[in-house]
Every structure is written in C-alpha cells, then in structure tokens.
Structure to design on (98 residues):
C-alpha cells in the first residue's frame, strides 16, 4: 500500500508535540502510535505492542533506552537538589574577580 503524503503525518505530529511539551520520549511514542494507526486502522494495538516488545528486547536498543533514562534521572535529581547552584558556589572559591 502506498501512503504518499500521509506518511508525513506521524513525524509532524511528533515534532509539534515535542516542541509544545518539550518531552521527546513521549513524542516518539506518540509518533509510532500515529504511524501504526495510519497503517493498521482500528486494529493497530496488537501490531504496535508486538513491535514494541520486539524492539525493546533488542540488546542495543535496550542499552540506549536505559542509558538515556538514567541520564534523564540524573538531570532531574540535579535540578531538584539545586546541584548546579552548589557547583557554582564551589567554582567561585577558585575564581578570582578583577
């Protein structure tokens, strides 16, 4: 089946969602959902779940997913603990002003 210009809908939905909410992971999930809805219609859920399980069981994809999730968690913890402010105060001890 040829999708033509309709094939641009999932990336556009993903891009708009990501720019509006600033949540990239959720935007990728939404993009795949929209793509599978366009491809399979009302019966999109089973093929989408099969694809998700297959891709998440791939060792390389799982590594990237875990690494990104761990870095995201670290950034969240630094932001909540005001870690950047502590780092700034530590560096100020070594800086000399004019």
């Amino acid at each position: 089946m040829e999708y033509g210009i309709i094939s641009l809908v999932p990336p556009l939905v993903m891009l708009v969602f990501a720019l509006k909410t600033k949540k990239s992971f959720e935007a990728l999930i939404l993009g795949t959902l929209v793509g599978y809805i366009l491809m399979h219609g009302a019966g999109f859920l089973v093929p989408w779940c099969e694809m998700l399980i297959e891709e998440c069981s791939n060792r390389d994809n799982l590594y990237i997913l875990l690494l990104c999730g761990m870095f995201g968690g670290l950034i969240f913890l630094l932001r909540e603990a005001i870690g950047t402010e502590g780092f700034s105060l530590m560096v100020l001890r070594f800086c000399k002003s004019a």
